[in-house]
Here is the input.
Amino acid sequence: MELEKLKDPSIDRLFDAVLLLKTREECYRFFEDICTIGEVQSLAQRLQVAEMLKSGHTYTDIARITGASTATISRVKRYLNYGADGYTMILERLERKQKK
Here is the structure.
């Protein structure tokens, strides 16, 4: 499992820090300091790609709307289908939150 390769005390510390963020504004402030704008945009793009794949959009539509390459779309699809279920978990939570 790739998760075991990822586990590291410094990554645990990063995730602990993220879990302490309480508002969207705090997220903007923290991610602006810790990531480049391009890195944050890439993360957001991958989430958008995952949402669109779950909704049944074609690669062509996803690439046109998000600007993601077919390689990125394919990678997201692979993790969506065969990964650690992180995308599925968070997409379900976002959907529940949106319905409230």
